[in-house]
Design brief:
11 strands; about 350 residues; alpha/beta
Amino acid sequence: MTTPTGSTGPTGIHPRTLGTTSPLTVSALGLGCMGMSEFYGTSDEQTATATIHRALDLGVTLLDTADMYGPFTNEQLVGAAIADRRDDVQLATKFGNERRADGTRVGINGRPDYVRAACDASLQRLGVDHIDLYYQHRVDPDVPIEETVGAMAGLVEAGKVRHLGLSEASATTIRRAHATYPITALQSEYSLFSRDLEDEVLPTLRELGIGLVPYSPLGRGLLTGAITSEDSLEEGDSRRSGYFPRMNGEGLRANLVLVERVRELAAAKGCTPGQLALAWVLAQGPDVAPIPGTKRIPYLEENVGALEVVLTGDDLGALAAAVPREAVVGERYGDMSSIDR
């Protein structure tokens, strides 16, 4: 399995800097920890912890979680896994998708009092004295972004948070937020299959000096080539539900045709389809640090190998031709109402 030869240590492999006004240096590739606790089939805490440890050993230092994952248990898992290696990690978590302990979804909450309470609860679960990058998970349409970010800024002033982020925010919201307090990074879905932010959001980030942390950079696993039908996923895996139209029925059949094109290009390049798809995301700029999620070491090591895949202009052109934006079938979510537009 190919592993990178770049620098390792507190800044991780092939370090990249998110943000210019409030910069945070992270590993070029991070690790999304959500699936270790919920949503993507069965999970095993021991295997998940071993995967986090292997990530750190490889120099993957940007770890991403959220209070809603589990709910709450993912933060506990991540916190326990890094307890003796806190200085090696850029720890990111999120608030705003409010859930109860039984998993009931309450809604999006951006009220200042909730921001403060959520942060304190996350710090306790993670077992740390500060969060490196604290995101608003979804924009609350009922609370002015200035009020939410103002409360987040108070957490920085209190020493509880080092840098601020948004997730799935529109260009207009990003501008208003950044005018309130410097935003270091935006976390949004971005992959060969999800490129809508290229129209307005990405240019806005570049104008303001804000980094991009793409989640689902492998199209929720589709771009790895490992998913060939709905039956490729475990029972209970949320991707089998209608909530992910690209992963079911007509959408899946159409999108698998595109995956096959990526597979052919990857074979010619001497890498896996997933590595090629990740290399494409990494090639979108030095201010981009994707966080592919996995709960198993072999997939982690495969993802890290993408850092050694160098794409030429011809390669990028071939990928653009193989996966045109308009060819992807299905919305990212069955219900897009929580996405700020």
